[in-house]
Amino acid sequence: MDVYITSTGHFLPGDPVENDQIEEVLGYVGGKPSRLKRRILEANGIQTRHYAIDKHHRTTISNSEMASRAGQDCLDQSFLAKQQISMLSCATSQGDVVLPGFGSMVQADLDLEDIELQTSHGICSSSMMALKAAFTNLKTGEHDNALVIASELTSRLFKASRYEAAGVDKRLDFNAEFLRFMLSDGAGATLLETRPRGTCFRIDWIRGFSHADSFPVCMSVGLTQDKKENRTWQDYQTYAEAEAEGALLIRQDVRLLENIVKLGVDGFLRLVDQGLVTADQIDHLLCHYSSHYFRGKIFDMLVKSGTAVPDEKWYSNLAARGNTGCASIMIMLDEFRRTQSYKTGDVVFCMVPESGRFNTVYMKLTVAEE
Amino acid sequence: MKKEDNVLTEQGQQCLQNLLRIWFDFERRLGKVPIIRRLEQGNFSIEDYQKLIRNLRQQVIEGSRWISRCASSFDRDYADVRSVVIGHARDEHRDYEMLEQDYVAAGGDLADIQKADRNPGSEALHAFLMYRASLPNPIDLIGAMWIIEGLGQKMASDWAKQVDKITDGDGRYTQFMRYHGENDDEHLEKLYQLIDRVCKNEIQLKSITRTATVVARLYAMQLDEIDNEQET
Fold first, then answer.
1. CA dist A193 to A40, A134, A256, A361, B27, Å?
2. What is the pTM of this model?
């Protein structure tokens, strides 16, 4: 049975925030502007993004509500009424509450009746896991349709007060500050059905390769700077103590980031080897990282080995919409669907490399006609 | 992408794809080797570093031997390849002296590193390389060079900095590792040319791939054995 993406939607909170306004919203740590900001922004190439908090650090819309708005946007463009939806598959890095699962909160916000529920937890790749769970459910005939929603509200982690509470305002390290100028808020949704509708995308396959067994943690919340895994945020006597120790800060081990590129290439070569795709089949490449990030020695080798996808085939909206973690690929696919030109038979290849502990997920879509 | 960037033939491209995957697999294996895991995680002592280079020295010394042997096993049909390999052997045959200087600079005793024996992994790696190098026209050893050259780059770009960072070093005792980052692009270019030269059919592709795989496994074993070293 074939499975199609027949609709998409998105929600981005508030007005776009320019690079020079970031700290007006997130706050100046220790009252001073960041010294690393320019360098980090130059590296990620992001120009504008959205935040679900205002400059007084009040949350303007919750994570589950953003998810719900994106889901509604997706349904509004679809051929299905809300009561026809039979499965909801959600992803986020961090819901508004620790428990229950994010999907339950989104279901309530969206007011969906009697659905089968799935929640994926992780970082950037969790949306692809949610998508795959829905895809396989439809493949096996369990359901005729599934609404998949990914949403992130990370800005709450970036408030200046968080860093000050951890006492790092005077010695804020690169690893703790890196993601502050990288991540922002938003939600994206896709609707999967077992029949095509108009011009839509057939999902040919979704495949992930996770390498947590071979690498240390690269992106985390819940560990202190030294990343001793035997002491996490829940192992302190009080949460206040954990916060003071910096165990609640979001961190990226920048040194390990290069592995993202290697593993991205490795996974791609596996797929080529398995006959699932070739570089010259790909008409549009949607990647959670910008193409310039992949520049370097490994990429040169990919070019040399004849498996690189030329620049003009890459599509991304990260620079304008921000890096919204697991929601990014959904927001990207939504804008691609609505604004780009493609024709029946075109191959749209999606790739989400996650640095958390190194999971890369790929998806091959083919443009189909009803 | 310019056309001339695609220097490799189709067979050469397939070979490079295979070698890339073998390399990535090797890197993941390295991530599981206890002493390398400690290095990555930051709980790595100066004694660990001494132990690491004490164990590397044997392989570096033997390295120049198998490369020389390899050169002599190429007949007249591969005279051009032999020239490249001879150059390689000449460049590296005294590298171990740098390693000894690093060992002393890191607080080790020269006599200790000089009398250190090959560990079981080094024995296996050396035996395999000498065996392959002794066969006529051992073109598959380009697979071995790929792994060993790649590791040199990794040491230079990654390990040297990490060693200095966590042992409070100033670069004085990581000279050997750092030195391998020099002329990086030139080495790669040579390697691409060699791939095109020696990988022209399926049999050659298979033997290069196989040797690269075996060398990667045995190299990882050599590093794995470091923590089994008997105190001298």
1. 40, 10, 39, 21, 40
2. 0.93
